[in-house]
Amino acid sequence: MSYSLIYSQVTGHIPYLLAGAWLTLQLAAISFVVGWVIGLFNATILSYGPRGARWFVQGYVTFFINTPLLVQVFFIFFVLPEAGILLSPYAAVAIGMSLNAGAYLTEIQRAGFASLRRAEIDAATAMGFSLPQMVWYVIVPHIAKALYPPLANQFIIQVMTTSIAAIFAVEELTGRAYNVNSLTFRSLEVFSITAVIYIALTLVCSLALALIGRWLFRVQAKVI
Amino acid sequence: MTDRRRLFVGGAAAAAAGAALVTPTAASARPLEDVLRSQELRVGVNPTLPPRALFNERNQIDGFEPELAAAIAQKLGVRLALQAVGSPDRIPMVASGRIDFVMGAMSRTSERAKIIDYTVPVHSENYGILSVAGRGLTTLEALNRPEVTLAQVRGTTAIPYIARVIPRAQVLLLDNYPDRNRAIAQGRAQASFDGVDAVRFALRPFNQVQWDVTAVPEFGVTYSGLGVAKNNHSLRNWLNIALYELHNDGTIERLWEKWFDGPMLTKVPHSPFF
């Protein structure tokens, strides 16, 4: 291949790329937290709610799981303005990613609720636990252990998914990589550095999530 | 195998895969004689830049550049194979010999010429301001205010100029020109400073909006050539001669007028000396 890798022409842009990585992390965190709250609310309805509400939630989940995130954000970014709703690029992407994550996190948390055994609740009741005690000492530890690994995986997926934000004018890591690439034409160098930053980002997130899981919920997630 | 050993082996495999991705392989750009021997000219075009290249109603790649590539292939006496390329993959595609040259508004800049060789210019690129009519956004001074948002296409030549000359304006970087035009029409941005050669074609879907298109000669004119792999002299020399002939017999201007709804705004001065 008549192409020489010259990283020195790109390394000057690394701080610019790292600032994009910080935005990537923010976007992933916001969409995950909002999606988690949506998912918790929906999973509660699916597990214990009235039939009408369950249908509504199931419709939401079916819609968002069966359409691409790109199409969903495109709708929010370009179709809503036709109805007079003009959101900033960051808000449009954050809302789209949150709604999308909410659908997946609904299913994850519903499965967690379903894993709760009736016998554990009966045992706690027989031992005279109050409802808050039952939630804190019986329900949360059980559900947390079941849910923590898939929730952590979903967060990593959120980090990767932020790359679609570049299409909608959000200058996260991938968007900035495209900018540097167009300036220097050093595609291999730019995107290999970007890949390394993504790997570092997800490894750090995995490590942090594993430590949080051990500390908060005593989940035996592998740190390394 | 212990967990630690498995982790080590997995890490080593990932590192090897990564190294394979970023290490040049044996594939290389094809010189002229290889193109002739294979009886096929492989050309990269970017179909997200209409009317330079686009997918037509039969979902085939069409446009100014595919037709020009066909004329070049005809001169060479080989068949044409078009390859759709995007911004990040176009240079590796040329360098690895997957395509023989790349088209797609390859504006010549000294920075880019460190990576790729250019032929003589194919066409000029003229710059100006695109805005909704009646808002007075027809000068660079009018754009240079924080309340003005410019919708631009990511990776285009105008971006560094905007950063230097219109630094107070907000910039919204979008993925393609239809999205750029839609953003301005919807009020997400007020204007754009970019090439104006293709606006007549690009604004057709937005005919309910009254547009102002104002030329900005201060920017100067840039020229686009064909992008050839570094040091592929035999192919580049032949392409220069072919382009001279295609300029001289009016083919390039005729194709331009067909696809851009009018003559090239700045004629390319073609010379028999390269």
TrEMBL record, chain A:
PROSITE patterns: ABC_TM1. It is found in: Cell inner membrane; Cell membrane. The chain crosses the membrane at residues 20-43, 55-80, 86-107, 151-170, 190-217. Its main location: membrane. Keywords: Cell membrane, Membrane, Transmembrane, Transmembrane helix, Transport. GO terms for molecular function: transmembrane transporter activity. One of its GO terms (biological process) is amino acid transport. GO terms for cellular component: ATP-binding cassette (ABC) transporter complex. Residues 21-209 form the ABC transmembrane type-1 domain. InterPro entries: AA_ABC_transptr_permease_3TM, ArtM/GltK/GlnP/TcyL/YhdX-like, MetI-like, MetI-like_sf. It is a multi-pass membrane protein. Belongs to the binding-protein-dependent transport system permease family. HisMQ subfamily. This is Amino acid ABC transporter permease. It comes from Falsiroseomonas algicola.
UniProtKB/TrEMBL annotation, chain B:
Keywords: Signal. Pfam families: SBP_bac_3. Residues 40-263 form the Solute-binding protein family 3/N-terminal domain. The keyword Transferase does not apply. Residues 1-29 form the signal peptide. This is Transporter substrate-binding domain-containing protein. It comes from Falsiroseomonas algicola.
